[in-house]
Design brief:
Layout lengths: L1 E4 L1 H22 L7 H22 L3 E10 L2 E7 L13 H15 L4 E7 L3 E3 L12 H11 L5 E8 L10 H7 L3 E5 L8 E8 L3 E3 L3 E11 L5 E8 L2 E9 L4 E11 L4 E9 L12 E9 L3 E7 L4 H10 L5 E7 L13 E5 L9 H10 L3 E5 L5 H7 L3 E17 L10 H8 L4 E10 L4 E8 L2 E13 L2 E7 L3 H9 L6 H15 L7 E5 L3 E3 L5 E7 L5 E2 L5 E6 L4 E5 L1 E2 L4 E4 L6 E11 L2 E12 L3 H4 L5 H10 L4 E2 L6 H8 L6 E10 L4 H20 L4
Parallel strand pairs: 3-4, 3-6, 6-7, 7-35, 9-15, 16-17, 16-18, 18-19, 19-24, 26-34
Antiparallel strand pairs: 1-2, 2-36, 4-5, 8-10, 10-13, 11-12, 11-14, 14-15, 20-21, 20-22, 22-23, 23-24, 25-27, 27-28, 27-32, 29-30, 29-33, 31-32, 33-34
Helix pairs in contact: 1-2, 2-15, 4-5, 6-10, 10-11
């Protein structure tokens, strides 16, 4: 460390000394009664004290320079995945473990050595058990990069087989370290007789009654001339099988399997290759996948007193979405229909002036199905006003009025782009008797009426949610004109179809009104992932609360149970159940709010990881490339101690010296105050003894 003071402050020091001497002379220059030597000593004490006080008033800064030495950091990373433990028969495992420990110990005498093992996670120290389900060297290098950012990383020693099945190629992250990389080539590069499912491509979400493709990539080594069979099992039952002839020693083939989704829910499919004689590993012959089959098709009922072009236009538009099953029922047939079987009921000009639908309307009320009312000249407005309370349509005259359409800019239930708004405003008019529209509840108005060129705020298409029941209203008939007017300038009525589809979708989507819900963050986890579940509990006002305790019981497919309690968040709950073995799991969560007990059930799947069995041939070429591009070398495990000599001879690996400069005010040094106090105290004591005080 070295210190320096600015020249400006040094020049001020003599001036302060002169002032101090002058002050001391004024104080002691005429004290003849004191001994000459004593008077000189007292004057000296006072002059120095005054000089120091005055100099501190200049706030002088002192520059401090310190030097810190940092040894090179050597990072040793050992691949702890299953494939890294697969070694040729000549491999001496005990010698390798001993040599790696010796290398670590001897390097520690000269360098700062940091040792890690990695697979699907990064941990400190060496571990020769090789339990890792995956190998993610890129994550390891990123961890090192972040932890030792701007530090003196001298070199990286990477002991691995070059099989990296997660995170991608680490070579790009190694370039950011700007340090030589030395690799120890583990594993076996000689192909063995083995048959495996290398990869499976599939869609994990399919729709009921649809066919879906599962693409299975099979590989075989040293098995030319033999045969195997690919079998597909659904929930333990074989559904397909296919013979495969292995016509080369490095065989690969992709097989597309077509499966039909016949039942909703989660389905476990097992893909299995029949084993070969003397096969190296059987674990990679099988792979499980989980596919969720959903039945999101909604049944839509269009009910009317008789045929009408609007009904045909509606059905044609709605059925463009294959997830809607539209049924049109007219007049007397309505008595046989059960509205409870439908996700949405569209009442076209019902109640009707010419047909009595009292029996159907009674069943409709009991079903609590969402309803879309479309009124027109044949509507019975008196019965209409009696059957619903959200809006009152007061008939002023039976004369037909034509009303054009404008999209309400404040509409927010679903989105319509500017092109759609412009197209709707250009539609032909709807027809309706002269009515006074009175809204009796809050409504979200999508389209407002335009009379000629005069814009109004009278609703034409709007939505309500009275008592939690979603309902739509269209005031006017002539939807077929809308569709036809758009089709004149386009090949299809795109905007009309979009408007009808979004209206039907909004009305038919069921709101989840459960007061207690527990859901996993996803339906399928890998076995090295933590199982996370979220829970929410609502009171009677549907405000989230988390005062009660929430317990959950998770059960695997062998009926083994795991009990947990949720942790509380701000207004909800969360559970981290940690990783679980592969298989199907179901859960039941319970809680109690006041006197009411609640439960929630569900399921999830944990996928068994087979990545370490799907590629077993070590990739030493990749390790050589990594070392070569990063100014290092590749070693076999039998001569890894040579790394010690190469590291010591590498002139790039040096101890760094960091210079730290900082300026500090002299007034912050307490020893200066101690000198001033000491001088003044000694002066006072001497004057006291000589009766000068």
């Amino acid at each position: 460390m070295s210190n320096a003071v600015n020249l400006y402050y040094l020049l001020g020091l003599p001036a302060c000394l002169i002032i101090g001497i002058a002050y001391a002379w004024l104080l002691y220059g005429h004290t003849k009664q004191l001994n000459k030597h004593l008077r000189f000593l007292l004057a000296t004490f006072r002059a120095i004290a005054v000089m120091l006080v005055l100099w501190l008033l200049f706030s002088p800064l002192i520059r401090q320079i310190s030097y810190t030495l940092e040894k090179p950091i050597l990072v040793i990373g050992q691949d702890n995945s299953i494939s890294a433990g697969n070694a040729p028969s000549a491999f001496n495992k005990k010698k390798y473990e001993s040599d790696l420990k010796t290398l670590t110990e001897r390097l520690s005498r000269k360098f700062e050595v940091q040792v890690y093992n990695f697979s699907d996670s990064v941990k400190s120290g060496l571990d020769f058990n090789y339990p890792g389900k995956t190998s993610n060297a890129a994550h390891f290098i990123k961890t090192i990069n972040n932890k030792y950012l701007n530090r003196n990383i001298g070199a990286v020693v990477l002991a691995t087989d070059g099989i990296f099945n997660r995170g991608g190629n680490p070579i790009y992250d190694l370039n950011n370290l700007k340090a030589p990389v030395y690799t120890i080539a583990l594993g076996d590069t000689i192909p063995k007789k083995d048959l495996l499912i290398a990869n499976v491509n599939y869609n994990n979400l399919v729709y009921l009654d649809n066919e879906f493709i599962v693409e299975v990539q099979t590989e075989a080594y040293e098995s030319k001339g033999e045969n195997t069979k690919l079998s597909i099992f659904e929930n333990g039952k074989q559904i397909q099988g296919q013979q495969i002839q292995l016509n080369s020693n490095a065989f690969t083939k992709s097989i597309a399997v077509k499966i039909k989704a016949t039942k909703p829910g989660f389905h476990k499919y097992t893909l299995s290759l029949s084993k070969l004689e003397n096969e190296a590993s059987l674990k990679n012959n099988n792979q499980n996948i989980i596919i969720e089959v959903i039945d999101d098709r909604q049944k839509v009922l269009i009910a009317g007193a008789g045929p009408h072009p609007d009904i045909a236009a509606l059905k044609q538009s709605i059925t463009l979405n294959k997830h809607y099953d539209v049924n049109v029922v007219l007049n007397a047939d309505l008595d046989t229909v059960k509205p409870a079987n439908y996700g949405l009921v569209i009442l076209y000009q019902l109640p009707s002036a010419g047909y009595n639908t009292a029996n159907f309307n009674k069943k409709l009320k009991e079903s609590k199905a969402p309803v879309w009312y479309i009124t027109g000249a044949q509507s019975n407005f008196t019965l209409f006003n009696q059957e619903q309370q959200a809006v009152t349509l007061a008939l002023s005259s039976s004369a037909i009025l034509e009303t054009f359409s404008n999209v309400n800019p404040a509409f927010s239930t679903f989105s319509l782009d500017e092109n759609a708004k412009r197209t709707i405003s250009q539609y032909d008019p709807l027809q309706i008797p002269r009515l006074k529209v009175i809204l009796n509840t809050m409504a979200d108005v999508a389209i407002q009426q335009r009379l000629g060129k005069s814009n109004t705020t009278i609703p034409q298409l709007f939505f309500t949610a009275l008592n939690g029941k979603k309902t739509a209203y269209l005031i006017g008939e002539g939807l077929w004109r809308w569709r036809l007017s758009e089709a004149k300038s386009r090949e299809e009525a795109k905007v009309f179809n979009q408007l009808m589809s979004q209206t039907v979708q909004y009305l038919s989507v069921k709101d989840d009104k459960r007061k207690f819900k527990v859901t996993p963050i996803k339906n399928a986890f890998d076995e090295n992932e933590s199982i996370l579940l979220n829970a929410v509990l609502y009171n009677d006002s549907y405000h989230p609360v988390n005062a009660p305790e929430v317990n959950i019981q998770i059960q695997d497919e062998h009926k083994k149970t795991f009990n947990f309690s949720f942790s509380r968040l701000e207004s909800a709950y969360q559970l981290n159940a940690g990783p679980l073995p592969g298989g199907n799991y179901s859960y039941t969560a319970n809680t109690q709010l006041g006197s009411k007990k609640y439960s929630s059930t569900g399921a999830f799947y944990v996928n068994t990881l087979l990545a370490e069995y799907q590629q077993t041939i070590a990739n030493h070429q990749l390790l050589y490339t990594i070392s070569h591009q990063n100014n290092g070398k590749m070693y076999g495990p039998e001569n890894l101690l040579q790394i010690l000599n190469d590291l010591e001879q590498n002139e790039q690996i040096k101890t760094l010296s960091y210079e730290d400069r900082k300026f500090e005010e002299l007034i912050s040094f307490k020893w200066i105050f101690a000198i001033i106090i000491t001088l003044l105290t000694l002066e006072w004591v001497l004057r006291k003894r000589n009766a000068e005080v």
